Amino acid sequence: MLEKFSKIAVFFISFLLVVNVVLAEDVNVLFKITNDYFKEGKYLKAIEGFSKIIEMAPPGNERESAFLRIAESYEELEHYEKAITFYKQFIGEYPESFRVDNMRLKICYLYFKSGDYEKAISESRKYIDFYIKQEDKVKRRKALNFYEVIANSYKMQNKWDEAEIIYKEASEKFPETDALRPLAYLYTQRGKLREALATYKELFKQFPQMAERYKSTIERIKKEISEWGMIKGKVQLSDESSDDLSGIVVKAERLSFGNYSPRGKTVFTTKTDIEGSYVLKDVPPGMYRIRAQTIGYVMQKSPKVTIHKKMKKQVCNLVLFKEARMRGLKEQFATAEEWKGKARRSIKPEDCEKAILAYQKVVDIYPDSEEAALSQRNIGFCYEMQRKWDKALESYQKVVDNYPNYKNIHKVMENIGDLHALLGNSKKALSWYKKALKMYPPYEGKAFIKKRIQEMTR
Predict the structure, then answer these.
(1) Are residues 204 and 275 in the same domain?
(2) Using one digit for the tens of pLDDT, what is the confidence trace for 186-228?
(3) How far apart are CA 428 and CA 421, in angstroms?
(4) Residues 212 and 95 placed together within one structural domain of the fold
(5) 366 and 299, same structural domain?
(6) 347: alpha, beta or left, given left = phi > 0 and alpha = psi -120 to 50?
């Protein structure tokens, strides 16, 4: 009986070995076919095939590779959530695999790639804490890859200060590496060129061989710094005198750039002294909007200045108005605009008169505002709607006389020319058209006014 049982056991074991050999051969053939699908970019077929391999194959290289290939296929198809799921499943099933370090970085990178920056940051921070504790130096340095993911995630959200902090932390944790290099580059991106130079200098102390590689970068940075300028001026408070004007915040916000384009919102900030004077130094070439602010006061309009080779020093004086006064101005101007709109729709004399009275209040109460010039011009429009040509001319002339720096002064001169042409006074019309042409800004089209002048000089 015992002998019979032994024969059955031997037969059964032999059968299993044969089945496993056949199964292993089938798995190998299926893996080769499926892997070809992956190489050819047929990722859906590859996923189907590798899923069967996971079901069929015993623990080993084929099953491990199948998990990896499914994750990579989903990544290629940009199904990042599924790819992350399989990468995490791979780590769970094969924690001792040499591929795990790369899988962790892949997971963080895919969160970044999918736009989930907060998750990319939190996952990367978790792995940084893990790798920094490693005794093996090579493994410990893998934390640098996760620092890069975090910094890039912050940059994608325009959180440049946070990205700067991350690069500084990385350089402090790994002083023996070239971790200062991305920090120097970030300073260059942000326009912090003096900080960039200092950081490159520190980097070259550790790695002298890099000096030659970044020679052209250093020369470009030094050239840019040589073109930096300054913006200065005084801040005054309208309607109220003060012996002490110190502490008013002045900001220069970059609108356009010179030879390079710093990333993020670049703002230069300073405070006024006791007399209200301010100086903004080390301002790179470009166009800036200048703002001043203090409690209870606001700017009516923020002027713009441009720093370039020939104009490295710019003077910009600023006036702050009481907040209540500015609110009153806006409300009064809005009322006038409302009546002008009604007048245009109805062409009723009484609506025109109400609009004229409302605009005149803006001119009388807020004569130094930008809205005063526009209101005076709109009074002329209202008189034109009433066909009161002389009064319209008189109103436009007041704009020319009282507001010579009005941004659309050329348009007002053109309005005067149009009225003289309408009244049959060609010489005066031509004279005003020529004056208007001289005042046209370079960025505005002049074809129409030039054609008008040519027609009148034939």
Answers:
(1) no
(2) 998 887 889 999 999 999 999 999 999 999 999 989 988 888 9
(3) 8
(4) yes
(5) no
(6) left
Whether residue 319 contacts residue 288, with contact meaning beta carbons closer than 8 Å, is answered with no
For residue 308, give the 3-state DSSP assignment: strand
Say how far apart CA 410 and CA 251 lie, in whole Å. Answer: 31
d(CA 409, CA 403): 8
Regarding beta strands 297-299 and 318-322, do their DSSP bridges make them parallel or antiparallel, or are they unpaired?
A: antiparallel
First to last CA, the chain: 130
Q: Decide if pLDDT at 300 tops 60.
A: yes
Task: Indicate the number of domains in the chain.
Answer: 3
Indicate whether 220 and 233 sit together in one domain.
no
Answer whether residue 148 shows pLDDT above 90.
yes
Cα separation, 379 vs 388, in Å, equals: 11
State the residue range of the domain holding 348: 324-456
- Give the span between the Cα atoms of 303 and 233, in whole angstroms: 12
Look up the pTM and report it: 0.58
Q: How is residue 302 annotated by DSSP?
A: -
Q: Which tokens hold the place of 135?
A: 């005794």
Phi, psi of 367 (to 5 degrees): -65, -20
3-state helix, strand, coil in the chain (%, to 5): 65, 10, 25
CB 53 within 8 A of CB 30: yes
Cβ count within 10 A of residue 160: 20
More reliable by pLDDT, 219 or 309: 219
The structure tokens listed for 156 are 């994608």
CA distance linking residue 383 with residue 353, whole number of Å: 9
State the DSSP string of 189-238. Answer: HHT-HHHHHHHHHHHHHH-TTHHHHTHHHHHHHHHHHHT-EEEEEEEEET
The whole-number pLDDT of residue 20 equals 40
CA proximity to 431, closest of 445, 448, 444, 418: 418
End position of a domain, from candidates 276, 298, 316: 316
Contact, 356 vs 383, CB < 8 A?
yes
In three-state secondary structure terms, 444 is: coil
Same domain, 309 and 433: no
Q: Of all helices (H) and strands (E), which one includes residue 269?
A: strand 267-271
Residue 221 contacts residue 259 (beta carbons within 8 Å): no
Strand pairing of 304-307 and 286-293? antiparallel
Sequence-distant (6+) residues with CB within 8 A of 295 are: none
- Burial environment of residue 148 by CB neighbours within 10 A (0 to 12, 13 to 18, 19 or more): buried
Are 61 and 99 in contact by the 8 Å Cβ rule? The answer is no
Residues 306 and 396 in one domain: no
